[in-house]
Amino acid sequence: MKEETYSLDTILATFTKTKKDSAKKRLIFDQTPLNGIGAKWIIAFFISLPVMLYIGIFNPTMFDMLGIAQAIIFFVVFLSMVMILVIALTFINNNKVLRQVTPSWNNSFPEVDLKLALASGGTPYKDFFKHYSEAVKLGLKGEALKTHLAQAFKVMQEENADLYDAIASARSGRR
Question: What is the 3-state secondary structure (H, E, C) of the chain?
Answer without folding.
Answer: CCCCCCCHHHHHHHHEEEECCEEEECCCCCCHHHCCCCHHHHHHHHHHHHHHHHHHHCCHHHHHHHHHHHHHHHHHHHHHHHHHHHHHHHHHHHHHHHHHHHHHHHHHCCCCCHHHHHCCCCCCCCCHHHHHHHHHHHCCCHHHHHHHHHHHHHHHHHHCHHHHHHHHHHHHHHC
